[in-house]
Amino acid sequence: MTSDDKEKFILNDEKSFEQLYVSHARKLYRFCCYYIKNQEDAKEIIQEIFQSLWERRDQVEINVPIEQYLKKAVKLRIFKYFRDKSVREKHVMSFLNDQTTGENTTENSIMYYQLSDQIEILVDSLPDKTGEIFRLSRHQGLSHKEIAGMLLISEKAVEYHITKTIAFLRRALSE
């Protein structure tokens, strides 16, 4: 019997496969634990390797000593473990960043609209001319000179009304 036949015999015979597991699993587990530092994940990796080997026993061809084959399988699974872990961590970080940004954006939007509503209510309570000058300045972005020309008043008067409105808003909003 050649070594290839022996390997196939081990994989096809349930008792021999169990013996293979008993003789190699502990050593492979320690090897895996050394690299990934997580006992539960190491157990799972070893179980997956042996389960996969058993499920594919009819298709798999092992052309190297079984110990070498199993160690290579563990190394490949360790690489996959770290690759998957890295991807998961990136997704989690991305999710957390999206959540944080989303919450802050939503919260900030709500606060912005509430503040805008309060400012509008306060500006509506101002005398008509003062409210109009403030809206032309802040909502339409007109300069003091443009507002003065439009309303036929001096630039100093425009500046006075805007300063008065800002002081009023600060007092009212701080309360």
From TrEMBL:
GO MF, any single term: DNA binding
Q: Which residues form the RNA polymerase sigma-70 region domain?
A: 20-86
Keyword presence, Transmembrane: no
Matches recorded under SUPFAM superfamilies: Sigma2 domain of RNA polymerase sigma factors (SSF88946), Sigma3 and sigma4 domains of RNA polymerase sigma factors (SSF88659)
Span of domain RNA polymerase sigma factor 70 region 4 type: 119-165
Q: Which Pfam families match?
A: Sigma70_r2, Sigma70_r4_2
A single GO BP annotation from the record? DNA-templated transcription initiation
Listed A to Z, the keywords are:
Sigma factor, Transcription, Transcription regulation
Q: Which residues cross the membrane?
A: none
What's the family?
Belongs to the sigma-70 factor family. ECF subfamily.
| Name of this protein | RNA polymerase sigma-70 factor
Instruction: Name its species.
Output: Dyadobacter luteus
